[in-house]
Amino acid sequence: MKLAYEKPVINKLRSGLMNKFGWSPAYARKVRTNIDGVSIDDLVERYGSPLFVYSERTARQRYRQMYNAFSTRYPNVQFGWSYKTNYLQAVCALMHQEGAIAEVVSAMEYDKARALGMPGDQIIFNGPHKPYAALEKAVSEGAVINIDHLDEIVDLETIAKKLGRTVHVGMRLNLDAGIYPQWSRFGFNLESGQALDAVKRMASGGKLKLNGLHCHIGTFIMDPQAYAREVEKMVKFGYEIEDAFGFGMEYLDIGGGFPSQSRLKGVYLPPEVAIPNIDEYAETITTALSHALKPGDFPKLIIESGRALIDEAGYLVTTVVATKRLVDGTRAYVADAGVNLLFTAFWYKFNVELDREAGGVNETSVIYGPLCMNIDAIDEGIQLPPLKRGARLIFSPVGAYNNTQWLQFIEYRPNVVLVTTNGEVEVIREAEDLSDIQRRERLPKHLELLKKA
Amino acid sequence: MKDLSHAVFRSYAEVFFLQGGLVGAALFGITLLNPRLGIAGIIAVLSAYAFARFIGLGKVFLESGFYTCNPLLVGLSIGHLFQLTPLAVFFCIAAGVLTLLVTVTLANVFSVYFRLPLLSLPFVVVSSLAYMASLRYGNLLTAGSHSPAYLNDDFGLPAWLAGFFKSFGSLLFTPSVVVGGALAALILIRSRILFLLAALGYAVGTTVRYGMLGSPAKAFSDPLNFNFLLIAMALGGVFLIPSIRSYGIAAIAVALSTIVMDAIAGFWSYYGIPAFTLPFAVVTLGVVYVLGLVGNPLVAQRIGKTPEETLETHLANRLRYPGTERTLLPPFAGKWTVWQGFDGGWTHKGAWRYAYDFVLTGDDGKTHTNDGTKVEDYLCFNKPVLAPVRGRIAHLVDDLPDSPINQPDKLNNWGNLVVIADPRGFCVELSHFACKSLRVKVGDWVERGTVLGLCGNSGYSPQPHIHVQAQVLETPGVATVPFSFVSYLADGVFHANDLPQEKQIIEPLYANKRLDAATNFVLDEEYRYSVRRAGRDYDELKLKVRMGLDGTFYFDSGRATLAFGRHEGTYYSYRYEGRDPRLLAMFLALPRLPLGLRDGIQWHDHVPVGAVARGLRGALVGVASSFWPKLAEVRVTQTCTGENRLDTVIESTALRLRKTGSVVFDRNKGIAALTFDGWELRRKDEAN
Fold first, then answer.
1. Of A290, A292, B137, B589, which sees the most CB atoms within 10 A?
2. Each residue of B479-512: pLDDT tens digit?
3. pTM of the model as a whole
4. Is the CB of A279 inside 8 Å of chain B's CB atoms?
5. Neighbours of A37 (CB within 10 A)
6. Structurally, how many domains does chain A consist of?
């Protein structure tokens, strides 16, 4: 076969020695030929490219690993599956099967959980925007409500009055756990006394019964001690209001924010080194809890993890549709999926794997997405061997936030499949076509184009 | 007046091992068939009752009829012997009062020293005294045999059958077919088991004596035959759990009693006194005492109103409460696997057989990751060990090293350990903690669930695990005693108080605070429910919380009671008594409730068969289940269907019965709504 002509470029010669992580920049490749035994070729052939692939086995393993880490250290643990992380029905159902209840932050997510068959009392309703109608429905169905602001107290009191009974509620706190940034926009601030004022307000209203505290200190928290500080402050505050107002704390919801094994942009160390093991979080949190709680008191510890449970179970299989040399000599590839499907590309440096061995010396390369937009670059500096058009790149972990934040922008959204525990492949979301995109649109009569014969 | 009539009539029922005012009233009626007798009897009871109140014996003691049944018998015996002259009435009163004194005295002696019931011993004592004394009292006019003619009619029955009824009659000093027949009918209505036992006793006793005496007439007509009836009823159905074995014991005791009876009768007759019920008392007490000494499981712990009730309560309770009173919460959080249980294959043997070992296993069933050569590879290593009981730390060891895998430390068997002294009177030892991991010190008070230290591999331990045992002393390593675990899930099924099997994966279930508060029913609280039956409005049910004499709390509907309580993380409906289908529906829909309710968990319970099989069917099942206990097995399966809801299914394969119900709890207190088998109850007072 005749090779295509390519303009010569000068590449910096690397020694080929391993660096301290055992990684040879010149020849190292990451190759993944299959996901849980189903070959990439097979998957693409049957379901097209790009393709989101979830591993049921990994998702369940991650759940059990994390749940066991907490439940073997504290006797009253409940996980709440964070819908916003990934609300594909199959994913939510899998988490519920494993024992998680639903954690939702909007009327839409609440409806989704109900539609999936979760009863109201198995749903935690959080978030700054709970429309009155949705709130009323949630209260009457017995959902756990964590109040975000004073106006919500007023709404809930109105609902309590209408239903003619006291309503059990939890409240969200924000506090200084010694990390930056401090998420102060949600809930009531603890240190300034705002939270205590809110409790006073509830007590004087007489319609609401506070029975739980909620807090979520941030996301991708890499310091377990931050949770220890959070837990200590929450328990202390819980006992303060129990003594002052008689509100017994039935649960402590410490939110989520646990990191997955992803590499954040700008972090030098690989995730296996930089990110503490989940057991370290569990150990730190439960030790802090057992020191802070009164003997014999075991309120329910609710954990609303999302990312740490599902991120590693998701892969995105893409195909190189074009290869290029940029003007500075850098090799560039255009893949059939970009930031439209990988929202997390803005802060993650993904693990990129090839679907087969490829010869040649690694070169610093750029991977662009298919959008006709300058921002659509998935990786702007990755060591890859020379790839041909049609080569496949597998991005991971992509299970968290991508299938909820992906854009219907320029391209159709592709198939999402699940490789089940027994190795079968199930489509859990079909690829879109034009009808999905236009179904809600209405074209006014006077704008209809004359049909050409 | 009502109290008085209750107490009086109950003394009549008590004579025949029955309880209840109505039966007593009927029996009173029967004694009046021979008016002289009936009047003398009631005089003795009333005088004993009045004297008892006079000396300050409380109403509640007298209510059962226990203290006044012996005076009744004495009165009857006097009425049997003398004409009712004013003098005889005085004699009756005096004897009644004397019997009460003897009863109170003997009751104390017997219960304290022998832990035995009294039976009719006071009657035998006082009646014998009265008869002996009366030999000197010429002014007391002996009654002739001029009783009403209908009392002497045998209605052409064969001798053995007439003899059977007459021995019933002899129980009331009227050896007559009419009286005996009425009595037999009454007993048959109240309890088929008692009636069958009476027949058994009569058959065995008379057959043996027929053989010995050689004369059927003597054997069938002996006025002392009623002793056979009493022995058989008392042993076969009252003091022992009705069963084939108890019937066997009853038959043996009756056969033995013939010797006692003939000896006593012969001896007593020198002094002109009848043997009365002395053979019965001697034989029955002797057998009960011996069975108690050898710890025979047949001895009834709770004697019901009838043998049927004793039996169904026993059969249900045997299945309902399999655990012990030394209750431990599993000493960990999360799902652990039972590695070795009681009488285990490795080390739980001999004096140390009551112990449990727990390990953590992964999805693959292995207890470790990697190749399992280091203690750190083991899933349970360094996991917290929690206090299974509340108590004081009595003893601990903390400085032994963790043994390498498969190289246990033979010198320090128990390794690092903690002994907790439980205030209930026993100790719990936990072993094999990780080196220097203890978070308590001697003298500390720990609550259940407190972290004691971390799981390790010190001592005689091939791989990291938790060892737990109960013992009477604080010294580590002494002989163990039985215990059981409370409030745990095994394969999704909740166990309130039980022993998990080896290889079972169990997880402690901690009480949910809200449910704990919601089932904390306080004295005098009132709950009102609107009741619907088969979809139509029925009436209103009002329940009030009250406390019984034994400290048990119960719901009172006015027509029935439902005793309830909470124990170690479980709410129980202990007993339903009375007649109120609405309260019965409540009992059957919720026999028990784990206070750590969690969606999807299931649990099992059993209810007494009488609660679901009533009428003729219930009567047949009552007798039959003494031969075939499985018949009385009514299994309840309950499933939690949400934070505060559950479904109930009651099934009996033997009876081909299946009923369903559901319960919804109020978010603040009690049950909000309940359905069972066509009944619907909905809370009226507060709808939360």
1. B589
2. 999 999 999 999 889 999 999 999 999 999 998 8
3. 0.85
4. no
5. 10
6. 2
